[in-house]
Specification:
- The chain is built from 19 helices and 2 strands.
- The protein is an all-alpha fold and 536 residues long.
- About 3% of the residues have low confidence.
Length: 536
C-alpha cells in the first residue's frame, strides 16, 4: 500500500533552519572558549581537565541564559510592555553588567555549603566532583528548557553537587540541614511570591480599576505605587545585587532605598499626571502608565540575577581552575576575568538563542498578563526576597517569579468565579451609574409633567413603573439578589468553569520543581563515576 507523502510546510522548514542556526551559534561559543582555555594550560598539571571543565561551565552558562533569565523579562513581554527582541537586549546587557560589575572577585567553590570540602580526599576527587555537578546541572536545565519548564538553576547545581558528593564520599558528605532549608524554599518561595503579587493586584483594583474616574485615581495612586516599587528594587539591589561590592545591613539599605523612592516620586508625579490626562478612562488606558516601570524592573532583575546566579556556572569552574593551578582544595576561589567572561557571555548567548521559548512560557502561557498584572509580579519578585532575607527564609528567585504569575492568575479566577465580584467591576460602575442617571432623568420628567395642567395619566404611570423597575435593579445588585435569566445563568456557569490559569502548565512546572534536585543528583553521581572510571 502506498501512503501519500507529506510535504514539509514552509513553517517547519523555517523552524528547522532556525534550530540549525541556534545549534551552530551555541557550538561557536563552545569552540571559542575551548580555544581560549588551551591558551591557559601553561603550568596546569592536567590541561585536558581544564578544557573539559571550561566546556561544562560554558554549557551551564548557556542553559542558565536559556532558562532562568525568562523569569526576569517574561512578564514584561507577556504584557506587551516590551518586545521579545527588546527584552533579550535589555536582559542581555544587564545580565552581563551584573556579572562583571557586581559578580565579585571571590566565589564559594561549594555552592550553598551543601557539602563539606574538608571530607574530600584529594584535589582530583574535587575536580571530578565539580565537573560532574556542572554537567548534570546543565543537562537538566537543557531538558527543562526543551519541555518549556522554568526551573531553579541554583537547585540544579545544588542537586549536582549533592549527588557527586555522595558518590565521592558518602551520605555523611551532605549538610542535610542546608538541604532541608532548600527543600523548604520549594514551598515558601512560590507561596510568598503568589500572595504578595495577588495582594498588590487587589490594591490596584480597589484604588484604581474599580473607581469610576480611573484617571483621577491613577494620578494619586500610580506615583505612590512606582515609588514603593523603587524602594523595593533599590533595597533589593543594594542587599542582593551589590552585596559583593559593598555590604550594608537592611536598615541602611532600606533608608537609601527610601531616599531614592522619594526622589522618584517628586520627579515622576507631574509627568504621570500629564500622561494620565491623555489616556482613556479605562483599564487599558491606565495600563499604559506601567510600561516604562516594567522595562526598568526587567533590567534591574536581570542585573541582580547576573550578579548572583552567574555563580552557578562560574563558581564551580573557578574552583576547578584554582584547584588545578594550586593543587589544593579551598573553600573559596578567585575568579579570573576569563572565567567571569565565560559566565557572562554564555548567559547572554543562551538567552539570545534559546531564551524566547521560556520567555513566552512565563509571559503568556501560564496566564494572561497585562501591564498591571506584570507590575504586581515584578514588585513581588523584589519584595519577597527582601521579606524572606529578613526572616531568614531560603527562597528561589525562579520560584518567586513563577509563583507571582500564578498568584495573579488564581486571583483572577477567584474574582471570575464569583459573579457579583465580577459584576462589581463592570456592572456596578457602568450599569448602576447608568441606571441612576436614568432614574434622575425620569424624576425630572415627572416633575415637569406634574406642572402641566393636561397630563396623560397613562404616561405618568408608565414612567413611575419604569422608575420602580430601575430602583429594584439597583437594590438587587447591591444586596446580591440580581435576577438572572436562564441564558445569563448558563453564561455564569461557563465563566465558573473557565480556567484563567493553564492547569497543564501548573502540573508540568510543579513536577519539574519537585524532581530538579533528585534528577540533578542522580545524573551527577552517574557522571562522577564515569569521569572517575575514565581518568583513573
Amino acid at each position: 500500500m502506498n501512503f501519500p507523502s507529506v510535504k514539509p510546510t514552509k513553517e517547519s522548514k523555517n523552524k528547522k533552519l532556525t534550530d540549525i542556526y541556534k545549534f551552530f551559534g551555541a557550538l561557536l561559543f563552545i569552540l571559542t572558549i575551548v580555544w581560549y582555555a588551551t591558551t591557559l594550560t601553561h603550568g596546569i598539571s592536567q590541561p585536558v581537565l581544564l578544557i573539559v571543565a571550561t566546556v561544562f561551565g560554558g554549557y551551564m552558562a548557556l542553559n542558565i541564559g536559556a532558562n532562568d533569565v525568562a523569569n526576569n523579562v517574561g512578564p514584561a513581554v507577556g504584557s506587551q510592555a516590551i518586545t521579545i527582541l527588546g527584552a533579550v537586549i535589555v536582559a542581555g546587557v544587564f545580565e552581563a553588567l551584573g556579572t562583571f560589575i557586581a559578580g565579585g572577585n571571590v566565589v564559594g567553590t561549594i555552592k550553598s555549603g551543601i557539602i563539606d570540602p574538608s571530607l574530600i580526599q584529594n584535589s582530583s576527587t574535587f575536580v571530578w566532583l565539580m565537573m560532574a555537578a556542572l554537567l548534570a546541572g546543565a543537562i537538566w536545565l537543557n531538558l527543562a528548557t526543551a519541555f518549556g519548564a522554568p526551573v531553579s538553576t541554583t537547585q540544579s547545581i545544588v542537586g549536582g553537587v549533592m549527588g557527586s558528593g555522595i558518590a565521592a564520599v558518602g551520605f555523611n558528605m551532605v549538610n542535610w540541614f542546608e538541604m532541608g532549608k532548600i527543600i523548604s524554599s520549594w514551598i515558601t518561595s512560590p507561596l510568598l511570591g503568589g500572595i504578595i503579587s495577588a495582594v498588590f493586584l487587589i490594591i490596584i483594583k480597589k484604588t484604581i480599576i474599580y473607581k469610576e474616574d480611573k484617571r483621577l485615581a491613577a494620578k494619586t495612586m500610580v506615583p505612590l505605587l512606582l515609588s514603593f516599587m523603587t524602594w523595593a528594587f533599590s533595597t533589593y539591589i543594594i542587599l542582593k545585587g551589590l552585596k559583593k561590592l559593598i555590604h550594608l545591613n537592611f536598615s541602611i539599605a532600606a533608608f537609601i532605598g527610601l531616599l531614592i523612592a522619594i526622589g522618584v516620586y517628586f520627579y515622576t508625579r507631574s509627568s504621570i499626571i500629564k500622561k494620565a490626562d491623555t489616556l482613556e478612562n479605562t483599564r487599558a488606558g491606565i495600563n499604559k502608565l506601567f510600561n516604562i516601570p516594567l522595562i526598568f524592573s526587567a533590567a534591574l532583575l536581570s542585573f541582580a540575577h547576573g550578579s548572583n546566579d552567574a555563580a552557578n556556572a562560574i563558581g564551580p569552574l573557578a574552583g576547578i581552575y584554582d584547584t588545578l593551578a594550586k593543587g589544593d582544595v579551598l573553600s573559596t576561589a578567585n575568579i579570573p576575568l576569563w572565567v567571569m567572561a565565560v559566565g557572562a557571555i554564555g548567559i547572554v548567548v543562551g538567552l539570545s538563542l534559546y531564551g524566547p521559548k521560556l520567555i513566552k512560557t512565563v509571559g503568556s502561557e501560564i496566564t494572561e498578563l497585562d501591564q498591571i498584572r506584570a507590575f504586581c509580579v515584578a514588585i513581588s519578585a523584589a519584595l519577597t526576597v527582601i521579606i524572606a532575607s529578613q526572616l531568614g527564609l531560603p527562597v528561589s528567585s525562579t520560584h518567586i517569579a513563577i509563583g507571582a504569575v500564578f498568584g495573579v492568575g488564581f486571583l483572577r479566577e477567584y474574582l471570575m468565579k464569583n459573579p457579583l465580584k465580577d459584576v462589581q467591576e463592570e456592572i456596578e460602575q457602568h450599569k448602576i451609574n447608568t441606571e441612576m442617571e436614568k432614574l434622575e432623568e425620569y424624576k425630572h420628567a415627572l416633575e415637569s409633567l406634574g406642572k402641566l395642567k393636561k397630563v396623560d395619566p397613562i404616561l405618568v404611570k408608565s414612567l413611575m413603573t419604569k422608575i420602580n423597575e430601575e430602583k429594584a435593579i439597583i437594590i438587587n445588585i447591591h444586596e446580591g439578589e440580581l435576577e438572572l435569566s436562564k441564558i445569563e445563568k448558563k453564561a455564569i456557569k461557563a465563566v465558573k468553569k473557565h480556567e484563567l490559569v493553564k492547569r497543564s502548565a501548573l502540573k508540568m512546572i510543579i513536577a519539574a520543581w519537585l524532581i530538579t534536585v533528585p534528577v540533578s543528583a542522580l545524573l551527577s553521581a552517574m557522571f562522577y563515576y564515569m569521569l572517575r572510571g575514565i581518568l583513573l
